[in-house]
């Protein structure tokens, strides 16, 4: 998963809590083994290798994730797109980064488009409509893994916990004696600084920002949240924070809203039941999806 | 009445101290520690704990400015301490996310370099500090 995972549990039995944490960690590992396009034996890698020549059976869980990914892609008019990998490979953010030539980006954009994901529910199988296409579920899979891990925690009767996978958070219950968890949101331009804090329970909260993975070339900052329409880093926002019932939805919606920019991004967030959030625009201005979330924030 | 005492095994035959003497000795030792050990002020931790590949590698005194080198599977991560804070000064990792994390100086903060398996933690938790950080 390429990230640090921290699990906080409050429970009456320490041994039960430790067992639950171990199971949740194993579940996160299993999810990563299925979803990582870096692992040759993952389901995603199999779809990327064989998906264009025939459908690959992926099982119900992975199938449902892909269906949600396609649904959010459609709802965001492709701002979130799980087929972005040919473009993100060009930028090489994992290897220090390089600014690709425009012709290369234009060529690879022909292989980006969620409409090319072919889902067959009768067999829980997935195909890709052309051989140059490939999946990258990075903008939703971490949240999905967190959700699955939280199911493990809850199956042990635990009602107060946080799973934190590199800042993608899912919370149940609250800190003992408080009834809520205090959650800080990273300031996009002040490393270590907080933009706001919230007292939350029973929700997921995910932030996407241009400060997470980036490189600077010729004085220009190039970050990893790419606009599937242009193949370039999206420039409308510094960060987007989304609250939703599941971390998978919050994860994908944060990326979509980031790509859409403040105005369309907020409209997108408002269009989804149970979803709220806020956007820091490229100029540093805060935009709130609604008064409730703005009222909840301590700044 | 027999006066309470504690027995300290120190040298041939050991040493017997009366309870009152032990209390005075304890206060003296605590005083010496308070003078010698780095102090935490205003919620700022006095030290940073550094792990490399899952094992304790160093404890940095945040009162003493300087640069410390920590080895990892990719090479050397250089940590800089200045003004009670610590940051990754340089790292052999490709993404440089740890370096981009900037300075940390508050209890509970952490810097992580996954590729080079170096973790820097500032122990403790400030009153009212967040339980988790969305980033």
List the helices and strands and how they pair.
The complex is a heterodimer of chains A (299) and B (135).
Chain A: E1 5-10, H1 14-35, H2 43-50, E2 56-57, H3 60-75, H4 85-91, H5 102-109, E3 117-120, E4 125-128, H6 138-154, E5 160-165, E6 168-172, E7 181-186, E8 194-200, E9 203-209, E10 214-217, E11 220-223, E12 237-244, H7 247-270, E13 276-281, E14 286-288, H8 291-296
Antiparallel strand pairs in A: 1-5, 2-4, 3-4, 5-6, 6-9, 7-8, 9-12, 10-11, 12-13, 13-14
Helix pairs in contact in A: 1-6, 3-7, 6-7
Chain B: E1 5-8, E2 15-18, H1 19-36, E3 47-52, E4 55-61, E5 66-72, E6 75-82, E7 85-90, H2 97-100, E8 110-113, E9 118-121, E10 132-134
Outline:
Chain A has 299 residues and is α+β, with helices and mostly antiparallel strands. In chain A, 36% of the residues lie in helices and 24% in strands.
3D architecture notes:
The complex is a heterodimer of chains A (299) and B (135). Chain A has 299 residues and is of the alpha+beta class. Chain A has helices at 14-35, 43-50, 60-75, 85-91, 102-109, 138-154, 247-270, 291-296; strands spanning 5-10, 56-57, 117-120, 125-128, 160-165, 168-172, 181-186, 194-200, 203-209, 214-217, 220-223, 237-244, 276-281, 286-288. Chain A has a domain at 166-298: T-fold (Roll), CATH 3.10.520.10. Chain A has eight helices and 14 strands. A seven-stranded antiparallel sheet of chain A has the order 1-5-6-9-12-13-14. Chain A has a three-stranded antiparallel sheet with strand order 2-4-3, covered by helices on one side. Chain A has a two-stranded antiparallel sheet with strand order 7-8. In chain A, α1 (14-35) packs antiparallel against α6 (138-154). The two termini of chain A are 31 Å apart. The mean pLDDT of chain A is 94. Chain B is of the alpha+beta class.
